[in-house]
């Protein structure tokens, strides 16, 4: 027996094309880096640590399969026939998770339900006009990226799916790419989650570039008495909004149902369900989402010339959405007679609650007495709804 037949992870490197081998090595070390950055807190650890492990494992655990084909015993995302699926669900240890929760959008819906549990819709109801205006402006990336993607040669579905990255909502990107561009589902999802983790580090520079220091520290003075939004009002809103949006956009009904059901359970005070979804479903989905994204980073799968286009377009989409949100912040600033902090606009990009935290953090770097988190969370939660609506429109028109 040859030594390379014994250590097949190394042996397969001598049987593959050089560019795949080089890319495998790059992805192995990128996996190490993601684990390190997740542990350090630079990137989101809940996603990045399992993703980094999966990425390094899928590119090291390569072996010779039957008929001397090269593969792995972890996952095969390209299976299409029922016979192959049944066969590999008994061989690859993550194949059942991928087939039964990932490729059908269930894991995206579980995450959305968890987001609903975490969201206080009262922030939206307290400032509905401000929240919706900023959220709509923050959809600039999801809309303006589409024609750019078409100009770069992507299909209608792929262009729409990569545009949704501008909404900075991971489950939405998963759902859109599965519906519109299943052939690009793997790279679009990976690009989305890599970039979403970078919004926390990149958006502060965008804020400093577009908003002068004296405006970043501005205190918002509430001229009207605050109305305490009751749980009943929040529950009524969730029920009606869910019914209306499902009626108008049935293609996205699974997302609307999951999100608003999470809100309804939160406001109903059903503690056992809240604990089940928040501590059970959400962490289960987040863990396997990160791990699955990592093991989908197989060098031979990602070594596609269109991946570079997706990388560029994903960055453009998030940048445009951030710029759009800040423009929305300025619009509200002038509408309210300059009694508003335009930094709040960045929170319209619906990476809940990261962009709202970014806004509050950047404001307090300039003025510790300026508290804008309630406005920011309203725009943030509203951004989830507007991105879901844009996703539904794309799917309805293009599927």
UniProtKB/TrEMBL annotation:
<feature type="transmembrane region" description="Helical">
    <location>
        <begin position="235"/>
        <end position="261"/>
    </location>
</feature>
<dbReference type="Pfam" id="PF03977">
    <property type="entry name" value="OAD_beta"/>
</dbReference>
<dbReference type="GO" id="GO:0006814">
    <property type="term" value="P:sodium ion transport"/>
</dbReference>
<keyword id="KW-1278">Translocase</keyword>
<feature type="transmembrane region" description="Helical">
    <location>
        <begin position="158"/>
        <end position="178"/>
    </location>
</feature>
<feature type="transmembrane region" description="Helical">
    <location>
        <begin position="20"/>
        <end position="38"/>
    </location>
</feature>
<feature type="transmembrane region" description="Helical">
    <location>
        <begin position="281"/>
        <end position="303"/>
    </location>
</feature>
<dbReference type="GO" id="GO:0005886">
    <property type="term" value="C:plasma membrane"/>
</dbReference>
<keyword id="KW-0915">Sodium</keyword>
<keyword id="KW-0812">Transmembrane</keyword>
<feature type="transmembrane region" description="Helical">
    <location>
        <begin position="124"/>
        <end position="146"/>
    </location>
</feature>
<feature type="transmembrane region" description="Helical">
    <location>
        <begin position="184"/>
        <end position="206"/>
    </location>
</feature>
<keyword id="KW-0739">Sodium transport</keyword>
<keyword id="KW-0472">Membrane</keyword>
<dbReference type="GO" id="GO:0016829">
    <property type="term" value="F:lyase activity"/>
</dbReference>
<feature type="transmembrane region" description="Helical">
    <location>
        <begin position="375"/>
        <end position="397"/>
    </location>
</feature>
<keyword id="KW-1003">Cell membrane</keyword>
<keyword id="KW-0813">Transport</keyword>
<feature type="transmembrane region" description="Helical">
    <location>
        <begin position="310"/>
        <end position="335"/>
    </location>
</feature>
<protein>
    <submittedName>
        <fullName>Sodium ion-translocating decarboxylase subunit beta</fullName>
    </submittedName>
</protein>
<keyword id="KW-1133">Transmembrane helix</keyword>
<feature type="transmembrane region" description="Helical">
    <location>
        <begin position="97"/>
        <end position="118"/>
    </location>
</feature>
<dbReference type="InterPro" id="IPR005661">
    <property type="entry name" value="OadB_MmdB"/>
</dbReference>
<keyword id="KW-0406">Ion transport</keyword>
